[in-house]
Predict the 3D structure of the following.
Amino acid sequence: MSSQTHIPQTMKAWVAFGAGELKNVLQLKTDWPIPSPPKAGEIMLRVSYVAINPGDAKMIAKPIPFRKAAIAGMDFVGEVIQIGPSFPPAFPELRLGMIVAGTVPTINILSGVGSLAEYLVVPAHAVAEKPSGLQECAAAGLLGIAGQTSTALLRAANLQKGHKVLLNGASGGVGCVLTQMLHGMGVHVTGVCSSKNAPLVRRLGAQEVVDYTAYEDLYGHLTSLATSIDNRPFDAIFDCVGNDMLYYRCPGYLAVDGKYHSIERGPFGFIAQFKFNHWPVLLGGIPRTYSSVFSNPSGSSAREIVNWFERGCVKEVPIDSMFEMNDALKAFETLSSGRTVGKIVIKVK
């Protein structure tokens, strides 16, 4: 095993004891045991920043059999300080001192592993090297769930230059990244956000912005946009908020062969997808394809978003706010407001 630094016996970590709301079950432990040394194919990181997501709270809220305690958090960036023995030759570029980022794999999360701690052991295949020119605090968000979900959405949508899309939640963590990627592809983006965030969404690449607070009937307004002279229905809709009514009313503004992509139902979204796509129209079904997109965390997806950044298609990662490690509960409280712009980051080191 390779190591370049002294590692203490205990660390700071935000640990959930049991399932429930974060404010009721999450505790800051200052003497939590350091993870066991990395095995073959694993690495240990000294975590510097964690970007938080709505899914963090969902994973703690759900009881997992045989899981008594779980460290919160999924996204991370940090320094490689240990490399497991007999490291697979598929990762020859990995080295001590490298700054890497990514998301804790789902299987590890289910066993109680989380990123909101000073030290973290993850499979080496789950990370990507932080590109030069990207700040560490931003890397936790971009190479984490926001960036990886954006790449999954693009794969699912199969869009081409000149296509037209509606992006609901354009100023959120995923929305800020996805808007830039779509713009880089030459796709026409109409972003849905509040008027306060409209300048940001336009700067990121949206050609049009719809203020969802400005219309008594938002869906009727979208229909009028799609049917007006010199206009046409959207080729795809990306729902990064979880607004089912946007889907129920979409025949008015989504092309017949278009797809509605939602990210809010997580790994069990296939249930809603089956229901929506197989419910007969005569019984109230919607005659448009519904796609539930879940991004299973992986280093390959993180490296894919690195390529977008290095090509200049993703130029910025808006940071809504940054909190110190001791204030993680305040960070989650801010996230739960549903009014954040970009990512919320917790400084661990």
Q: What stands out?
A: DSSP finds twelve helices and 17 strands in the chain. The chain has two domains: 2-144+298-309+317-347, 147-292.
